[in-house]
Amino acid sequence: MGGTPHFVHIAHKPGHTSEIVILSGAQRSRRTCISPPTATSPGAPIQSPPPKPDTLNPRMSTDHSSNSSRLVAPIFFYFVAAGIVTVMLGPLLPSLITRWQLEDAQAGTLFASSFFGQLIGAWFATRNLRLSVLLGAAFTAAGCAALAWATFHTAHLALFTAGLGLGFSLTAGNVIVGTASAYVPHRARTLALLNVAWSIGAIACPALVRACAPYGPRLFFLLTASLLALGGLFATTIPHPATNASQSPLPTTRIPLPGAAIALFAASLLLYIGNENALGGWLPSFAIRNNPATAASTIALFYWLSQLIGRLLMAALLYLVTEPFLYRASLTLLLLTQIALILTPHPAPALVFTATILNGAALGPLYPLIVSFLLTRTGQHARLGPLFSFASLGGATLPWLTGVVSTRFGGLRPGLLVPAAATLLLLLLSPAIIPRPNNTSAR
Hints:
Strand content: under 5%
CATH architecture of the largest domain: Up-down Bundle
Largest sheet: 3 strands, antiparallel
Structural class: mainly alpha
CATH topology of the largest domain: Growth Hormone, Chain: A
Number of helices: 15
CATH class of the largest domain: Mainly Alpha
CATH superfamily of the largest domain: MFS general substrate transporter like domains
Number of domains: 2
Order of helices and strands: EEEHHHHHHHHHHHHHHH
Strand order of the largest sheet: 1-2-3
Radius of gyration: 22 Å
């Protein structure tokens, strides 16, 4: 495209020279200016104001928007297919328990296999973001195809492979999209919309399970593998330079956060993913045991549909309330709903449906907000992968622990104490991960 700018980077330090670098396909130009010192809290990255279009190239804003669309469109498409795989154990679990004659603790090991794979994939995902998306699509498609012929024991290996692919692709996709815009206030909304795409897949999963039920789960796994392969092919259109974290001018030696802050973000990601998957995996079984006439796929559909609605509402609510307020309000609603299920000895179907919807809606905004809080302070960084991998550790342990507690105490009501405890801990950790007002741009 000749001299048309493709990427703008602002290297900025308080009281030092700021350098604006405009990169194009055939040329590079530099401009320097002196910027005044800026007050900020320790460990927070400096946020430079976006360059004014009239001081650079008048076509820059339009071209940058076009390139951002090229960058994120394949990721949005892939996230739809990935959403199906991430949640498929929930609507499939009751039939798998019956088919393989499993106890709850044994069924929990299926979740553990998938999320241990995600842990390893996420650990390495941010070394090369584009490659991680492509490898993730390939591994996830292979794992789903293998599940079509798996037994209980071989299913663990197939789920591990699929989880490995999800760890690669979901982590890399969140970082790519979360850092595609230079405007910090837009980051949470963009991530919310990305997770809406994932939620569409999660909603489609129970409907697809039900549609394939007359032909057995093999058709479901093969169709899902085909969608993932298609998403992987689309992902090959992601531009090379813009997605490689190792090419970023940000430091790659360490994450620009204190160790304590990194640990708190890791714990929050772990608790959220564990909570989401414990509820998504066990609520269908909980509903069936309280009312055998209930369809597991229906509960799963309501759960993920309400989460999608929560994320859609989030994008609108952020024009009215602050991110910290929405984060704390969502956690409070989630905790109250979980307590209501635990304290009700024989919950009526109406209560189970209502609690399922409220759980999903309250969970919807949480992950995009946690990632936004993190990326606001770190930007795109090659060493974020290990931090995101802790999220997968939560997905591996909390659903399994829910099954263990359920088996030990003879019911899923005690088992739901596990996600409820995770919600309480998230609420207690919230003051530590929410950026201070002077760390974020004004809305």
